Structures are given as C-alpha cells and as structure tokens.
Amino acid sequence: MNLKLWYNLKKAQKDLEPRPGFKRELNALLSRQFDMVYGKPGIWYRYVWVKTTRIIIASTLGVSMVGTSAYAYNSPQVTEGSVLYPIKISLEKIEEQTKVSPEAKVKFLFKKAGRREAERDVIVDKVGSEIKLTFSSVEQNSLATSTLTTSGTVSEAFSPTSSNLIVITTQPREVELIDRDIENVDHNLEDMEAKLGDSEEANNLKVKIQERINRHKIKDAELQEPIVFTSSTSVASTTLSFPTSTLVEFDREDRNTNAKNSFFKNNNILKKFTKSKTKEKIKIIQNEKGEIRVIDNENEYKIYSSSTPARIEQVIASSTQIRLEVNERDQETRWYRSESKAVIQERERQSESEKKLEEEKKHEEEKRAELLKESSANESDN
Amino acid sequence: MSSLKQEFEKFYQTHFDKVYRFVFFRCHDRELSEDLVSEIFMKVLQHFSDYDETRSKTAWLMTITKNHLANYWRDRKLTVPIDNINEDDEEGNNDSKWLKSALKVAEKQANKNLVYEILAKLSKEEAEIVTLHYIIGYNYAEVATMINTTEGAVKVASHRIIKKMKEYL
User: B160: nearest CA in chain A?
Assistant: First the structure.
C-alpha cells in the first residue's frame, strides 16, 4: 500500500477514536444496567464462582502441605539435616501425645525406633559410598606387629614403609544425632516396661523390649572393643606413616603443623579429609561380623576396603592395639602396645596356670627335699 | 447468569471501538456519538439473552447499530436530509444511507482528511468496503458478513480499491 494512502487511512481511523474514559464509563453503566435487567449474582455464585480462584489456591496449598507432611512423615529418606525433618519430628510428637495407654506408647516407641534406624541406614549408606580405605603394605606390617612385645622405639619394630591410606569423608553429624535419638527411645522403652501391666500383650511387649535392649548392649560392646592401631600425626610425618593394617586411629590435634602437611601433601583425598574442622579424631574398627566402620568424635561411617575379608581377618588376628607417641623432650617416637581384653585375660589365665604349676612344682620339690632330709636323718640314726 | 454477564463484557470490549468509529464516522459529533453508542449497547444488553447463536454477532450488532442510527435520523429530522443525498435510493435502504450521509457530513468538515475526498470518488460498494475494513477496523470475514459476500471476494475487492485509490492520490 502506498505510504501516503496508508497514513491518511490511519489518520482517519485515529480521528474516530473515542474519548478517553468513555469506554470505561459506559462499561460501568452497562454493568449496573445488566444487574438491574438480569439480577445480581446469588450467594452461591459468589462463593462457588467468584471466589473460585481463592478456593483453588487454598486447596492446592492445603493438598500440597498434606502431601509434603505425609511424605516427610513416612519416608526414611527424610533424615536429620533435611528441610522436612522438623515436620517429621513435630508430627511424631503429635502422634505420641495421642497414645494414652502404656501398651500404645510402647508400640509407638518401637515404631519410632524403627524409623530412626531406617534413617540411620540411609545416612550410613550415603556416607559409606564416600569413604574408602586401602593399604598396600598390610602383609609386611602385620608381620612386624606379630613380633612386638610391650614397648620400644618405632625403628625397632618397623622398617620404614609408606602405607597407602586413603580416607574420604565428607559426612556431618547426623548419624550421631540419630543414635542419640535411638538411645533416648531405648531409655523410654526401659521406663515404660515398668508401667506395662500383666496382660498377654504387655508380656509380649516386655519380651520385645528386653530383646531390643540386650541387642543394643551387645552392639555397644562390639563398638568399644577392637581399636587396633593408633598413630599420632607427628609420627606419621616423621617415620613410617602408619604402622600397619586397615585399622587405624588418627589423632589430629596438630592438624596445622608443617610435619603433617608434608605427610599429607601428596594425597589430595587426605588433604580434603584433614580440612574438615569438625573431626578431631577418627577410629577405624571392625566388629565380629566383619563390618568395618570409621568413627570420629561425632559420626560413624561404613568403610569399604580394598583388602579382601580374609586378609583383613588375618591382619586383625595378628594385631592388637598399638599406640605411637612422640616424646616431647627428645622427639623420640615410641610405641605402646595394648591388647584386647580377651587376649589379656587369656595371658593372665596362662600366667596364673603357669604360676600354679610352678608353685605345685616347688611344693613337690620341697616335699621331696623334706622326704630326702627325713630319710637321711633316719639313716644316720640307724 | 453471571457467565452471561462475563460474555456480555467480553462482547462489549471486542466491539466497542468499532461501533464507536462507525457511529462517529457517520455523524462526526463526539457527544452525539457517545449518546448513540450508549443507546446501542443498552439495546444490545436488553436483547443479549435472546441472541440467536447461529447468527454472527458482528452482523447482529451492525444491524442494531444501523437501525438505531436510521431511527435517530428519522426522529430528529437530520441536519443533512437523507432524501437529498440519496436520490437514487428511494427504497430507503439504510445500508447505503449511512455512508452517503457520513460522506456528506465529512465534506463539511473544515479540516477534512484526504481520504474522504477519495472515498467520495469511489462507488458506494467500494467506499463501504474501504471504510469498514481500513477505517472502522473490521476484518475481511466480518466485512463479508455485513455485505453478504465471501471473504475472498472482499479481499480481492479491497486490493483493487486500494489500487484505485492510489491513482486518485
């Protein structure tokens, strides 16, 4: 279209535009008129249609809140540290308030303990995948370990060697918090046991409570028992890193010393580990089931080792606890050996039996000597 | 009931500008146009619930508008006598009366637009198509409904008319 023609047509159109405001005024007038002609909308309309948007928004929010709460309450994936965890705990508290009879409360506590344990497994699984521990010089060191007696310098016991220890850990303290929760639940169960009646159901619950408490006692004993090797960071930096084996305890108080930095400088993964400020100490343990775990002041982790289970068993069989320390005066590194209770008891038993044997032997010799004396006296009399 | 009100509001928002332009194009008096447009929409409102769904709403509204304008002029004895400008249309066809009346009024505008001069040179049908489509703002389909023809025919005609208008420039 010709520009001039287009311009003139547009101008003609613009000249016909209504006065500003007229359209709105007429609309308002028509709206009032419409209500007069057709009547105002009823209450049902105002609630059902006019406020539909509000109702939809409110119900959507409500449904999503209920859904979120239900998910938080039921899923073991919602663990300590999760945003939804407080909701879960709050709902549990509410549920707990609804339980009146001791039996109902005990049942609830079992359920609660089950939930915490499931959460714990989730966290441990998550963390376990991030922790690895490997040693390449296990055999050599386990041989050295078997020759140890009581104490001495490190160089006497070990030939310098570099152990390949890799520990990756990133996990915070959720597990310990959950463990505390479980412990509290167990205490509550113990308290509730006294309040239970004599009915069949109550008796069954009492048995269950006892089973649970005993199981935990055994578990605690397992965890406390078998720490095997210890090393201070100074030792690690000066001589042979760690003396041996898959089971190690770090003491990381000197975390910023040059010596320690020099030890860790070639191992990025360890560097990462040592940067973690919350962990001052870790223990690596193995229980009777062969599960290896890392425990620091706050957390417990599962461990995956490159050694085969048979090799680990062999190493543990030949090991007891060894602690390495640096003497502050002469900077001499010394080792101390301590043994598991079972080994000590066995040795004590052996030494006692040896003592007895010696005493018996001595006693017999004394008797024999007396007899000899008596016989020689008789002969002289004759 | 209230869905009807919403429907009416939508209808009003869609057609208000076109109806206003149509009326104002015809009378070139802003106050009068506002009165007439208000009355037209009042009529529409009165009969909105009786509206025949099978018919085009645009055509329905246009019929109401044209009839209302015709009634207005009949009752008020227009300043521009329709009979004088519509000598060859003795049957009183409103469809042509409104246009000729508008052109006559437009001629009297002191500061008239060039377009009106050109429209005066076009035939009645041609001027109607150009006015409805390019000035008032109806689309081809709506124009076709109003003048009882096909959309394609309107398109072809409008292009041809524009070409013709260029020559008059």
Answer: A1
